[in-house]
Amino acid sequence: MNPVETYIFEQSENKQQILTFFHDLFVNQYGLTANIKWKIPTYYGKTWVTYLNPDKKKDGIHVCFVRGNELSEKHSILKAEGRKMVKSMYVDSLDKIPYEQFIDCIKEAITLDKTVKYKAPNSKK
Questions:
Q1: pTM (2 decimals)?
Q2: From CA 114, how far away is CA 125, in angstroms rounded?
Q3: pLDDT at residue 117, rounded to an integer
Q4: Sequence-separated (6 or more) residues with CB below 8 Å from residue 41
Q5: Confidence band (pLDDT; 50, 70, 90) for 124?
Q6: Domain count, the chain
Q7: How far is 94 from 81, CA to CA, in rounded Å?
Q8: Within a domain: residue 124?
């Protein structure tokens, strides 16, 4: 078992289902590389694209897009929640995922990662 799968296995049953769904989608369907960074599952293309952040108070997951501020406004399922760059969608049940809208988000995030150079917020240029 790799570190991400071990992490998923250690979560509650509901979180395991949600994490497994997104992990399989990101890795198997979209070819992202999985790793544990800051103690949570993160997914990379050329750079960091998305991460899965389990909610500490509720039994759900925040699916976060690192460059969410650069994604088109048509993705109303993503919320900034006071953050400047990251936008996320909260999922507490697989039945509630707006699947087609989410797939549009991940496709755009991956295209952005492949075509527009990432500029870290703390970099000078």
A1: 0.91
A2: 19
A3: 81
A4: 4, 7, 8, 19, 23, 34, 35, 51, 52
A5: low
A6: 1
A7: 22
A8: no
Tokens 């952040």, residue located: 53
Interacting residues of 34 by C-beta distance below 8 A, sequence separation 6+: 2, 4, 23, 26, 27, 41, 42, 43, 44
pLDDT in tens, 10-45: 999 999 999 999 999 999 999 999 999 999 999 999
Nearest to 26 by CA among 56, 8, 52: 52
In a domain, 125, yes or no: no
Q: Residue 108: give its domain's CATH number.
A: 3.90.1150.200
Helix (H) and strand (E) counts in the chain: 3, 5
Does residue 9 sit within a domain?
Answer: yes
CA dist 54 and 19 (Å) reads 9
41 in Cβ contact with 7 (< 8 Å): yes
